[in-house]
Automatic annotation (TrEMBL):
The lineage of its organism: Bacteria, Pseudomonadati, Pseudomonadota, Alphaproteobacteria, Acetobacterales. One of its GO terms (molecular function) is glycosyltransferase activity. It comes from Roseicella aquatilis. This is Glycosyltransferase family 1 protein. Residues 253-395 form the Glycosyl transferase family domain. Keywords: Transferase. It comes from the Bacteria. Residues 439-462 are annotated as: Disordered.
Length: 462
């Protein structure tokens, strides 16, 4: 196993920056590779007006390969029957535009994200009828080496379609975002624990290479791959880029406020902030304000009870729900700091977005957040409410020395970008295709009795 950002490899920081189309893409022996990109997650998220972090990642991958020549990428999705089918490139382009319109500005008044829904439903209906299966077989039989990219975890627990894709000659490369359901099952719905274990088992069995978003995720992943008894394939540690941030001049709260981004769920530790603000209110303080941006999640009865029933929080805490990206950026740009008291993360996109805007960050002292934030944020114990109180009251002051010190450190922080991410991905894809089709780069060709089946499997069959 060799990390692709290890010493001896080209420095990620030295890679050119610019538009996705500026990159040459993965190449083997001078021939561009054929990427098969699964966009099933984007087809399934069209009912929401605000994307998850994983959906943002799949969008970035789709945009990147949509900017490449058509012969270099086939977009696919998984049908309800399990098989994969190729999707029309023009419809993918229309779907991305429709989704980004809603994500950026919110749905048109009274209509909701209907355009994206219509496009996605049409493609899903075609998959049910078998559309795209013959086209995918044709692409897999072509002269270019193929790599199947699955970057959203969706369908990663279903082994047979992935096995079929590999038997048809495609190398398989998933992106693993985190292992939270396995390391912290208390923060996950029970069915997700078994499902994520199946995802990691599929990765251990079939992955020719793996993309991870942080060295922390890599270290935890290796611990969970090792018990499967197979050599670990090449891993690319490729920090995620961030969306374009363009704060506009819009009305903002006139009083000092802090912003907390993320789904209201136990893992994000909103309860610490709500109890802190309740204490401040009971002391007679009317500021600073706390703004919560994110949808309500599951299993968070205590935090939701505080939000819904505690009169002390009226006027000092405002729950905004999910908001369009444009409005989130405006609110973030005006905040005294981003508050991120999470218990565990695989990466930390909100931290990167805040720092990219020059906004200070108070966040949990976690390995993944230190990777993202470097020396810039102030890191706090997510269990230490007293420390959070001291930091927040300090940062609320117009002359806060701690806030001024962090803003000075921000000048030395460099934002992660998608161009650097894809440079690492391209090197990984080139490496995994050096092995003969159907063989993992570091795994000997040993019999697999538990995968017994026909010698040749239709890549579009479950």
């Amino acid at each position: 196993m060799r990390r692709l950002d290890a010493p001896g490899q080209p420095s990620l920081a030295s890679q050119p920056r610019g538009l996705f189309s500026d990159l040459t893409g993965a190449v083997k022996n001078g021939v561009p590779l054929h990427v098969i990109l699964d966009v099933s997650r984007l087809l399934s998220c069209v009912h929401r007006v605000s994307p998850s972090g994983i959906e943002r990642v799949e969008m970035a991958y789709a945009r990147r390969w949509l900017a490449r020549p058509e012969a270099e990428c086939t977009f696919v999705a998984q049908s309800l029957w399990g098989w994969f089918g190729a999707l029309p490139r023009a419809r993918i382009a229309a779907l991305l535009d429709a989704l980004e319109e809603v994500w950026d500005h919110g749905p048109p008044a009274g209509r909701g994200p209907r355009r994206a829904q219509r496009i996605a439903l049409a493609m899903l209906a075609g998959l049910l009828r078998g559309a795209g299966r013959a086209e995918l077989r044709r692409k897999l039989a072509g002269p270019r080496p193929s790599v199947f990219l699955l970057v959203s975890h969706r369908g990663l627990d279903r082994r047979a379609p992935i096995q079929a894709m590999r038997r048809a000659g495609a190398r398989f490369v998933p992106l693993i975002h985190d292992l939270i359901p396995l390391t912290h099952p208390e923060f996950t719905r029970l069915p997700q624990v078994g499902r994520h274990a199946a995802r990691i088992a599929t990765t251990a069995t079939f992955a020719d290479g793996i993309i991870v978003n942080s060295a922390f995720t890599e270290s935890v992943l290796i611990e969970h791959l090792a018990p499967h008894g197979r050599p670990i394939p090449p891993i690319a540690v490729a920090p995620l880029g961030i969306r374009p941030l363009r704060p506009a001049a819009a009305p903002l709260p006139t009083e000092p406020y802090f912003l907390c981004l993320g789904t209201v769920e136990p893992r994000k530790n909103h309860e610490l902030l709500l109890r802190l603000w309740r204490d401040l209110a009971l002391e007679g303080r009317t500021g600073p304000k706390l703004l919560l941006c994110g949808r309500r999640g599951w299993g968070n009865a205590q935090a939701l009870a505080l939000l819904d029933q505690d009169e002390a929080l009226r006027g000092v805490v405002q729950e905004l729900g999910p908001l369009p990206d444009g409005r989130v950026t405006e609110l973030l740009a005006g905040a005294r700091a981003l508050l991120f008291p999470t218990f565990v993360e695989g990466y930390g996109l909100p931290v990167a977005e805040a720092l990219a805007l020059g906004v200070p960050v108070l966040c949990s002292d976690l390995p993944a957040l230190r990777e993202v934030g470097g020396e810039a944020p102030d890191f706090l114990d997510p269990h230490d409410q007293a420390a959070w109180r001291r930091a927040i009251l300090d940062y609320a002051r117009p002359d806060s020395p701690a806030r001024a010190a962090q803003r000075a450190r921000l000048a030395r922080w460099q934002a992660p970008d998608w161009e650097t991410h894809f440079a690492a991905v391209d090197r990984l894809l080139a490496e995994v295709t050096e092995a003969p089709a159907g063989l993992r780069p570091t795994r000997p060709a040993l019999p697999e009795p538990h995968l017994a089946g026909p010698a040749s499997v239709d890549a579009t069959a479950a």
